[in-house]
Amino acid sequence: MNICLVGTGYVGLVTGAGLADLGMNVICVDKDKAKIDALARGVIPIYEPGLEELVSRNERKGRLRFTTDLKAGIESSAAIFIAVGTPPNPDGSPDLTFVRQVAEAVALHMNGYKVVVTKSTVPTGTGKMIDQILREKNGKYPFSVVSNPEFLREGSAVGDFLEPDRIVIGASDARAIEVMKEIYKPLFLRETPFVITDVASAELIKYASNGFLAVKISFINEVARLCELMEADVEAVATGMGLDPRIGPRFLLPQRHRRGGGARQTVRPPL
Ligand SMILES: NC(=O)c1ccc[n+]([C@@H]2O[C@H](COP(=O)([O-])OP(=O)(O)OC[C@H]3O[C@@H](n4cnc5c(N)ncnc54)[C@H](O)[C@@H]3O)[C@@H](O)[C@H]2O)c1
């Protein structure tokens, strides 16, 4: 199956190379010409263990290409993954300008049935927004909108993509679910848990997961302050709490311990 990955940043590049490794023919598109030129020369703009090898292996096999030509990517692909940035606005809400631009480009260039998949982290309701753009700007061809949030962490992104805890697929019709199952078939066969639901629920799974992890970090920072007042040892408290499987040890390392460089776990709030 031909797939177009729009946005060749952290998530787009890892996802594009990962999907190629799962057997898809992937075209990675970015509007940043310097980035695409560098990638075409084999220069990987980010350091991620295993990524360079993943990219070059799939390029050699002819399953991974890089371009700035979004029109060609859309026209030649059955599924278009949106992995562009969603930077925060001054009020903290995500700026969806790039997502909207890609949806408009898909509406303009679609030449048959397309599955439009959001990989970017987007608030609930974005799927509806994309649906509306496609409907209004292209009433001619059928399409499905899918939410397939990404949970990879910087530093272990390749492993997280190829051996995920779960794959979340939010779709409103059976045809799109079949396409997504086909794309992720090798992971399905490896018994990766799949959560198949509606678009809004999938979008909310990502936001709620990020929110919960942020709560865990904030919580242990509050406990650290309490420990300072009470002359208690926050590391001992975190260890004692984390051994409860209902709580778990990850994301329970307080701020002052993180700054010290004792990097025992990923502590940055997820994206
Ligand atoms: N980085 C992470 O760890 C992580 C993890 C999970 C989810 N996410 C989410 O994934 C999304 C992408 O994050 P990222 O870290 O990969 O961002 P990034 O800034 O590294 O990459 C985004 C890319 O999109 C490109 N782009 C923007 N508009 C475009 C357009 N119209 N056409 C083509 N290319 C365009 C940019 O040039 C850039 O290369 C965000 O929503 C982010 O919240 C990130």
Summary tags:
271 residues; Rossmann fold; 8-stranded mixed beta sheet; binds nicotinamide-adenine-dinucleotide
Report on this structure.
It contains 12 helices and 8 strands. The protein is of the alpha/beta class and 271 residues long. It has 2 domains: 2-197, Rossmann fold (3-Layer(aba) Sandwich), CATH 3.40.50.720; 200-271, no CATH class. It has an 8-stranded mixed β-sheet, with helices on both faces. Helix 1 (10-21) crosses helix 3 (51-60) and helix 5 (97-109) packs parallel to helix 6. It is globular and about 65 Å long. It starts with a strand and ends in a 12-residue tail after the last helix. The structure holds nicotinamide-adenine-dinucleotide.
Question: Could you tell me the number of beta strands?
Answer: 8
Sketch the major β-sheet.
8 strands, mixed
Q: Which oligomeric state applies?
A: single chain
State the separation between the terminal residues, measured CA to CA.
Answer: 28 Å
Shape: globular
